[in-house]
Amino acid sequence: MDLTFNTIQKCITWPVPDLWFYFKIFFTAFLVITMIMMLQSNHFYTRVGSVKKFSMLDLEFPTSSKYMAKILNGIYKLPSEKVSKVLGALRCNLFLDFLFMPAAYGSIFLLCMHIADRNNNILFTFLAWLQILAYAFDVIENITILKMIKQSPPLKIVDFIRDVEDFKEPVSFVLYTRMVIIKWIIAITGFMCAFMMMLYFWLANLYNPERLPQLYFLIAEVAVFILLTQAFKKYSKYI
Amino acid sequence: MNTSEVLTPEEFTENLEVISIIAELNKHFNDKNPLIVSDIIDDDRHQYVDLVQKGGGVLGIALVGYTYVLEQMGIRFFKLAGTSAGAINTSLMTVISDREKPKSEEILKILCSLDFMRLVDGHWLARFLIKSIISKKKITCVNWKNIFLISFLVILFCDILFLGLRFQYQQNHFIDYISKSFFIVTGFYLAVFGSALIYISNLLNKLKNSGFGINPGDYFYDWVKFHFKENGVETVSEFQNKANKIPDIKLREGTGKEHPEGIENLTPKVALITSELVTQNKVHFPEMCDLFRIPEYFDKEIHPAGFVRASMAIPGFFESYFIEKIPINNSAIQLAWKTRFQIDKPPTKVRFVDGGLLSNFPISIFFDPIIVIPRLPTFGINLDDSTKDENAEDPENWSTGSYAGRLINTMRSNYDKDFLLKNAVYSKGIGSIKLSNYNWLNFFLTKDEKLAMLIEGAKSAKAFLMGDKLNDIEAFNWANYKASRAEYIINNRNFNPTIEENQSIKK
Questions:
Q1: B319: chain A residues, CB-CB within 8 Å
Q2: A200 vs B contacts (CB less than 8 Å)
Q3: What value does the CA radius of gyration of chain A take, rounded to a whole number of Å?
Q4: CB of B431 within 8 Å of any CB in chain A?
Q5: What angle do CA B434, B436, B439 make, to 5 degrees?
Q6: Distance, in angstroms, between B431 CA and closest chain A CA?
Q7: Chain B 193-212, CB below 8 Å of chain A: which residues?
Q8: Using 50, 70 and 90 to split pLDDT, how confident is the model at A1?
Q9: pLDDT at res. B502
Q10: Taking CB atoms and an 8 Å cutoff, what residues of chain B touch A70?
């Protein structure tokens, strides 16, 4: 049995050659695309009650299908010159997300596979391949929102209570919200567990000191990312 | 909703305690000792009073128990006012049937069929957190937060411990395995913590972007809209028509001399109180609709359910209610703002939160200093959820929460309290329902809790009408009330600033 387990483990663990090279590419792409998406999200406005900002998280974690419909429909209630700007930013953001996904999930996949290979640990192998499921869910989520904003107004807003029968959320909405939650759980768990293991290797002095420049590179990347996003946030107020 | 959890109106109206309350009242008030609470009656001998209902979140259920008993005793309501939960009852009492007919049973049916949890229509995680925090009387979320923190610290400690041991016992694979496992578990904890942080950050952002409320309040708005529609009210005009419809009233026999004005100028009124934050004023709906739209646009652009939604917009809990695109260039709008609030430049949009911020118990709303001897009293129903507060005796040692709570309560209750202090006679018409065992934001009440609150309302109504020596409650005495009001007006006319301020409020 142990032989079978090890065999399966060896089959599904993928020791990526030049892992850190690919990781640097994926991670850099992740940071750059995140920055662009954050800048675009400054243009996300809708009219729900009053004109207000919304974020992708509002569309990923809507309180109800009605609220999601109100956010999307509300874009069309903005002044006409703003409607095209907001829709353009939202569409661009969603299309960029298709590039963001392989960068993000690819980074997490590589990290988990690295740990799995180094540690002979099936948990990380499992977490790595699970990122594909998260990727798939993210694609479905993106396509769903893109389809919604294609029509004008996007969705029919239904009163919660129309007749004696009480309102029930559509199955599609329930599936959508569950899918988004699972996606986030997979991604965050994969990343945090891999990060903690790497921290362990660092603290246990199990890393090759020659890898230090790569670590400095990653830290510098993150620092530049934070500084640039803060700077762009301030600058974007004047756009 | 599970039907076994749904309270039916019959479970209240046929409750033995409630039946006994009505029976006792009927026995006490008989031909020799009739119940007299007003000089305004109709042909069916119903007596008319003005009614003010206090706000109090879910505690508002008890209001219906109170009004049920009053209606069973032949009392009907001429003018109605309410804040927050009181506004819900007030609006339903306005739209359901006519003033001559009792409404509490119908309102009971509506409230019983409402799944209160649906009012908490924010994100499911927020609903879970609110339920955890609020379903107990005291906040005990500290428990699960402490468990999480303590277990995290334990795991962190084990991380360090086994990592250290690993250096000591480098050949021991078991310690190596344990050490790695603890790091992985720490990763899971951080994943949970990270997710919570992202969610809370999103929630705070939403709070800022969405009128500072966790829940959109859409379900509540639609629920009110639905029941208004069921009773033939879909526009502001229809709501106003129902609010202003005069029942077939007359003066009680033998009171003509006391009331030389007769029933002249006795017009019904409904007031739903809300707080407007842009201009920082108290607003009554539907009366002050003319501040926001010209009459031709009332019905097209505002729904009367919005009045109730505005009154119930508990800050932080529900999103604020906005009215935008106010036609500030219209002369009628400008005149309305100038007349009511002395504002020369009206705002283009307004933002409403719970009326309880300014006047949770608007007992002064129907005060008319011109009338010396009142023709009908103002009844108030006070929802009293105060507890014996040991902290009141130790103000130096209040926690931050206690300090903030008292700060807010001192400010928000001052307006109504000040009126009652200056016009103590109005206290005679106020009945209090003791609800210290309930949390006003507990939308997760059980059926038994709802029934218990309704019965408390009924008991308080009985005590108000009959008196309760045990609890030192005097029975309402109409003759005494009239005399006290008249004496107060005569003594304070031209001297009392409250009277001067209220000159503009007319019956």
A1: 49
A2: 163, 179-180, 183
A3: 21
A4: no
A5: 120
A6: 35
A7: 194-195, 198-199, 202, 205-206, 209-211
A8: very low
A9: 45
A10: 218
- Of the candidates B180, B187, B222, which has its C-beta nearest A195's C-beta? B187
pTM passes above 0.80: no
Residues of A in contact with B322 (CB under 8 A): 49-50
Interface check A194 vs B, CB under 8 A: yes
Match 């002395």 to its residue by tokens.
Answer: B342
Residue-wise pLDDT tens digits, B77-134: 999 999 999 999 999 999 998 999 999 999 999 988 888 888 888 777 667 777 776 6
- Taking only the tens place, the pLDDT of each residue in B250-307 is 999 988 888 888 888 889 999 999 999 999 999 999 999 999 999 888 888 899 999 9
Tokens of B362: 């608007």
Cβ <8 Å between B218 and A66? yes
Separation of alpha carbons B286 and B265, rounded Å: 19
What ipTM goes with this model? 0.78
What would the pLDDT profile of A63-122 be if each residue is shown by its tens digit?
788 888 888 888 888 888 888 899 999 999 999 999 999 999 999 999 999 888 887 778
Asked if A29 and A221 touch (Cβ cutoff 8 Å), the reply is no
Q: Which helix (H) or strand (E) holds B306?
A: helix B305-311
The candidate with the shortest Cα–Cα distance to A114, out of A200, A30, A38, is A200
B361/B380 Cα distance (integer angstroms): 8
Q: Burial code of B79-111, b = ≥16 C-beta within 10 A, e = fewer?
A: bbbbbbbbbbbbbbbbbbeebeebbbbbbbebb
Q: Is B188 on the interface with A (CB under 8 A)?
A: yes
Cβ distance B431 to B461 under 8 Å? yes
